[in-house]
Request: fold
Amino acid sequence: MDPTTITRQVDLDTPADELWDMISNPDHLAAWLGDSVDVDVRPGGTGTVVDDDIVRHVQIEEVSQPRRLSFTWWESGDRSTCPTASRRRSASRPR
Reply:
């Protein structure tokens, strides 16, 4: 079965440095991803996201500060539920 791709674009009126902190700091990532986040935000870094008692494992794919953070996550024991998420700062936004 081919993987499903979902693309979502969100425009935020936020300075790039502040946005980068929001998506690369595990304490702030919890506001986006779940109840708690414990992840090593560097290429190859791993960790977990817990939301409503569901544990998802995270693998960081790409980090390009302050433009891009890409990761894959999946539920414990089931890597078939393995979407990849990317957060990218728009080139049209000022630094």
Summary: The two ends are 40 Å apart (CA to CA). Residues 91-95 have pLDDT under 50 and may be disordered. Residues 36-88 form one domain. Residues 25 and 34 are 13 Å apart (CA to CA).
